[in-house]
Amino acid sequence: MDSKRGLFLVICDDPELASTLVHIQKNMDIKVWLPNKQNQLQTSLIEACEDSDKVDDILVKGDITKPSFFSQWKEYDPICVVLSLKDNDKYSNVREMLLEELPESRILSFQIGHPEEVPRKLVDNDRELVLSWTELLSRPISAELRHIESTHRVKEIRDILMEGDKIALLLQPDPDPDGLASALALRCLLGRNKVSTPICSFGKVTRPENIAMMQLLDLEVITIKPEDLINYDKVAMLDTQPAHFTVTLPRVDVIIDHHPMVANYSHIPYCDIRSKYGATSTILTEYLRAAAVNIGQRLATALLYGIKADTLHLNREVIDADLYAFVSLYPDINYNLLRRMEKPELPMRFAPVLANALLNMAFQDKILVSFIGNVEREDLIPQVADFMLQFENIEWVVCVGIFENNIVMSVRNVGYVKNAGDVVRRILNGIGSGGGHRTMAKAIFPVAGWKDKFGSITEENIRSTVLNLFLEEAT
Questions:
Q1: Among residues 238, 261, 260, 262, which one has the least CA distance to residue 252?
Q2: Phi, psi of 183, rounded to the nearest 5 degrees
Q3: Which residues form a coiled coil (predicted)?
Q4: How far apart are the C-alpha atoms of 59 and 390, rounded to whole Å?
Q5: Which of 230, 258, 263, 234 is nearest to 172 (CA)?
Q6: How many angstroms separate the CA atoms of 332 and 299, rounded?
Q7: pLDDT for residue 26
């Protein structure tokens, strides 16, 4: 039993519902209760679950009106229960037993009836969502399950962060729209202001579109040093993780991110990392909806822009949760502000950088590498990479520059090749830091580490070394 993985317990007498739920939930241990004396129903449930692995481990029997049935699951954390029984008396008895024996469980209850007769409601301190079958048909089950999960996550994160008088919302250096929007959303969720809960970063915001976003939405990001975190009662990291930094952070209380988990964070009080999500803004949108927080025009615009920016206008690595968040935010945004954030003017200094990049390209087997030398702003490197991915017959682009004594690589690919984040982690091999998603990634090598491993930092050596690394790992 992997008690840390969580339990998804289905108690129902409808084989079709059992089949649907079993195939939706992939992140927890699944158990489906079987009635003892209804052989035909048992057969139907087994058939409904037959496409899942380890059917014998999924299907369980027992008397659901007795405490012993529920007490066997107490070691799991978290526990999510779906309860649906046609017999109303039995439903009531089982529900009461469930509430008593598994007090920390999260419950999704289905009842027979019209929405007017069985209105949607959160009960028992928001741990149970009750809705009718009719309403269920108009909203995917997966969305309902996420709503329950988010409700409890909101309570947990509030309990942790409300203890602090001064909270740092920590973003990656040179934060992007997804991080900025997520920080603004968490501050709103906590009901705090920018004085007690500032948005912080170890590096200034430099990209034109991000600066435009901050100016238009009146956002402020203060630049701090890692040791400054000791001056805060709590630290919440958004759209990044401690392992993404080259220094050890003095404290972290909360992590909310959508990048792949790259370390063990079991020691951190609250950690919500969902690598399948297209944006951290999607996670925060779910939090706000679950908490029934009013999302005003300014915040809606920020969150929607965060989702668009990290998913390339919903064209890259999105799931249904990203689409639901996008659709729910769209009616409330300021379209004029969004257009002005998406189309900022490029600084003239970008022109010579691009010209130099075009003159210093090398490509082989659909991999293009360009070395642009020393740059005064790190954001110019990914901008060049984004531009070069438009060339025909190119599947990978690696743009390399030197910034603040580091060799920085921005990696882009077309999406149907190897995972960019995995490729970068293999290339780094403990020398530097970085990671990413399927279609985009970043690698940072300290100049000293590069010299020890690969030799000189001349243009020719860097370009040829990077090309050979990606020919070996990406093809």
A1: 238
A2: -65, -45
A3: none
A4: 51
A5: 258
A6: 9
A7: 63
Provide the residue type at 372 as one letter: I
Domain 350-474 fold is Diaminopimelate Epimerase; Chain A, domain 1 (3.10.310)
User: Which token pair is 132?
Assistant: 């009718």
pLDDT in tens, 180-200: 999 999 999 999 999 999 999
List pLDDT tens digits, range 253-273. Answer: 999 999 989 889 999 999 999
Residue 151 near residue 291 (C-beta atoms within 8 A) = yes
Coil, strand or helix: which one is 180? helix
Question: Which distant-in-sequence residues (6+ apart) come within 8 Å of 92 by Cβ?
Answer: none
Identity (one letter) of the amino acid at 252?
Answer: V
State the greatest distance between any 2 C-alpha atoms of the chain, in Å, as a whole number: 78
Residues 6+ apart with CB under 8 A from 262: 241, 243, 244, 425, 435
With contact defined as beta carbons under 8 Å apart, do 314 and 326 qualify? yes
Sign of the CA dihedral with 446 first, then 448, 449, and 455 last: positive
Would you state the structure tokens that stand for residue 71, as one six-digit string? 């007490």
Separation of CA 105 from chain center: 23
Query: Is beta strand 167-171 parallel, antiparallel or unpaired with respect to 29-34?
Result: unpaired
Structure tokens, 340: 């002005």
Domain edges within the chain: 7-139, 159-342, 350-474
Query: Which CATH number is 159-342 given?
Result: 3.90.1640.10
Q: Tokens for 193, please give them.
A: 């202001």
Contact 410, 381 (CB under 8 A): yes
Strand, helix or coil for residue 101: helix
Q: Alpha-carbon distance 462 to 455, whole Å? A: 9
- Cα 182 to Cα 307: distance, rounded to the nearest angstrom: 10
End-to-end CA distance of the chain: 39
Cross-strand partners of 399: 370, 410
Q: Which residue has the tokens 């990203």?
A: 322
Over the stretch 377-433, which tens digit does the pLDDT of each residue have?
Answer: 787 898 899 889 989 999 999 999 998 889 999 999 988 889 898 999 899 887 888
Residue of 258, 317, 263, 253 lying closest to 286 (CA atoms):
258
Among the residues of 177-276, which ranges form H helices?
177-190, 208-217
47 band by pLDDT with thresholds 50, 70 and 90: low
Other CB atoms closer than 10 Å to residue 442's CB: what's the count?
Answer: 21
Closest of 402, 412, 382 to residue 444, by C-alpha: 402
